[in-house]
Structure formats: C-alpha cells, structure tokens
Amino acid sequence: CFTLLDTPFENLIGFASDNASIMMGQKGGVQALLKNKVPSLFIQGCVCHSMHICASKACSELPSHLEELARSIYSFLSNSSKRLQEYEEFREFTQTNPHQLLHVSCTRWLSSKQVVKRILEQWPVLVLSFTIAAIEDNNNAASNVQNSLTNPITQMYYAFLAYILPDIIKLNLDFQSESYRMHKSITCPVKGILGNFVKKEIVKNKALHEININDPSVYLPIAEIYRGAKGESIYIKKASSISTTELKQ
Fold first, then answer.
1. Does residue 24 form part of some domain?
2. Residue 50 — very low, low, confident or very high, per pLDDT cuts 50/70/90?
3. Would you say residue 171 lies in a domain?
4. Which of 188, 193, 146, 191 is nearest to 168 (CA)?
C-alpha cells in the first residue's frame, strides 16, 4: 500500500492496533516489521484490552469459592420450583427488592457486575433461605452455601467487588469513546482507583507515570486499604469475628 502510494515508510510517526500477536508480536508482528524500518516509530496497543488483562489478572487472585458461591446459589434455587416459591416467601417477609437472581454466564468478574449486585442486595434473605434449607432439609449443598454466606469475609469480598467493578468498567468504556477525552478525565478515575490502596500523599502529589508500583513503600498497610463504604461497614460490625490472617488473605 505504501509502495503503491509512493509513500516512504520514514513518514510514519506512529502505529496503533489491537494487541493480537499478529499485530503486536515482538518478532513477526506488524509493529516489529515496521519498527525494523522506522526505529523511532511510536507504538500504541489497545488500552481497553490491556486494562481488561490487568483487571482479569487482579480478579484471578480472588478465592475461587466466590464464583462457586454465585453458581451454587443460582443452581440450588433455579432447579426447584418449590425452593423458588419458598425463597419468594422469605423475600416478601424480609421486604427485599423483587429482583431476580442472575446466572454467572462466564468466569470473568468484569461481566458479572449485576450478579454481584443482586446477591449482595439479597444477602439477608439468602442467609435465611439457605439456613432453613440446611437445617430442615439436612441438605449438604445448602449447608455449604449457608457457611459461605455467614462468613463476613465472603460478604466483604462481594461488597468490594460491587464497589470497584463499576469504576473499572466505566474507565474501560471511557477508553472506547469515539469522542476525544481530556487527559484529566482519564487520569482522575485512575488515581481514584489507586487511592484505595496507595498512600494518599503519593497519589495526590505525583503524576501517574511517577508512581512506582514495584516499590512496596507506596502501598497502604493492609488495615488501611479502602474496601468501599459497605465493605468498611461490614468490617466494623464483624471485626471481632475476623482474624488478621483472614483480612490479609
């Protein structure tokens, strides 16, 4: 194409593409071939894809039982009309919003924001429903779910996900915008996320590129990490039943 248009490669100043290996591979990728011809070429990969990889990596550190809990709740209730009817009665008794529980369709937490939200808002009725099923029906599956639901650490995890996922998803959508976004409108949300676990004076006084994430001294102590208002509320109420080891995990 460049040859047909009689355009020298040296005129290229930048190359942007998705992060597929055929485009961004270090050896045979298009960007590598272009860099061989134009060493000064600026390369920009897909920010959205990079952000998704970062978020997915972070979510992979979450305990696997969190996803198993969401699947178990849905499966246990949806596979029995009797259980669903009883659950609806408990919901009416506790005056919980009549929102349907959702199925976890994939393993990516970024796609499960609504699942997390529904479970969290119906937590009290879920505890009541599964406690009764575990005791009256002597059901092992219900007992396992009930044990998870009554664990304050599990509830804190869900509260944190409900707090942080909307910010991550919104930031990803901002990078997909077709209209120009001011640099500040992007850096502010990023700093907002960092402010949950990086020392406030560092977030406030340093530019993003100046924050060395490989330096342990920039991070807040475990006890000072912000987990969202609901997560903090759960911790304050249940602090006596949460060990330091559980909190660090």
1. yes
2. confident
3. no
4. 193
